[in-house]
Each structure stands twice: as structure tokens, then as C-alpha cells.
Design brief:
151 residues, rod-shaped
Length: 151
């Protein structure tokens, strides 16, 4: 491995693997943010449903909405970081191609998948958004359907 090209190939391969690991880790972090946001909001919904806290349901709803917004901001943050890593992966794949590696043949011609940018996980992001919006909705519904004076 004394040839500089071999060293460059090893470094590029390692960097591409790092990109993949980084993307996988941030996908897990993004899902964890959604899980924790929904868990907090479900706990707040249970608190809002109790008669002892009936007078502050609106405050609980506002707090729950804040949790959902903060969770969504973190999801977008992690998505941006994954997009940056995908862009780096595209650069590395192009380097492989320029240096004689038939990358398309190796991976089955799916090298342009990352080129869609931040919309890469659009379906997954839409599902996360629906989940996060739905979680404070339970408290919102409790404002209308639970009686303030009910035991």
C-alpha cells in the first residue's frame, strides 16, 4: 500500500463508510426525537384529562405544542446534517468514478439516490410531522370534550 493512489482509495473508502454510519446514526436520532416528543405529549394529554388540572388545560396545550415544535425543529436539524453527509457521499462517489472505479456496477446503478437533497426522506419526514402534530391534538380535543367541572 505504498502507492499514493492506494492510500487515497483507502481514505476515500473510509470516508464513505463514515458518511453511511453518520447518516444511520442521525436517522436513529431523528426517530428518537419523535418518540420522546410524542411520549412527553402523551403524558401531558393524560395530565390534561385529569380533573385536578382542568383549569390549566390550555397552558398544557401550549406547552405540548411547544414540545411538538421543538421536536420538529430537531428533526429538521438532523435531516440537514444527514443531507450534508449525503452531499459528501456524492463527492466521494464522484471521486471513485474519476479514479477508475466502476461504482455504478458495484452498487447496481443507484448512485444518484442522494442527489435529491433534503427531500431524500420526504415521505418519512411527512409521517414524522403528522405524528408530532397529532400528539398535541389530544390535549386540544380535551379542551372541548371534557367538562371543566367534571369529576
Amino acid at each position: 500500500m505504498s502507492d499514493p493512489k492506494d492510500k487515497e482509495f483507502a481514505i476515500a473508502s473510509s470516508a464513505l463508510e463514515d458518511c453511511r454510519r453518520y447518516i444511520a446514526a442521525h436517522k436513529a436520532q431523528r426517530w428518537d426525537v419523535v418518540k420522546w416528543g410524542v411520549s412527553v405529549n402523551l403524558a401531558l394529554a393524560l395530565a390534561a384529562a385529569t380533573s385536578a388540572l382542568a383549569d390549566i388545560r390550555f397552558v398544557i396545550f401550549l406547552f405540548s405544542s411547544g414540545v411538538a415544535v421543538a421536536s420538529w425543529c430537531l428533526v429538521i436539524h438532523y435531516n440537514k446534517r444527514m443531507t450534508d453527509m449525503r452531499d459528501q457521499a456524492i463527492t466521494l462517489v464522484n471521486w471513485f468514478k474519476q479514479n477508475g472505479v466502476d461504482y455504478d456496477a458495484i452498487v447496481g446503478g443507484k448512485t444518484n439516490a442522494y442527489s435529491v437533497g433534503e427531500s431524500y426522506d420526504l415521505r418519512e419526514l411527512a409521517i414524522f410531522l403528522v405524528i408530532l402534530v397529532a400528539s398535541p391534538t389530544l390535549i386540544f380535543l380535551s379542551l372541548f370534550f371534557l367538562h371543566r367541572g367534571a369529576p
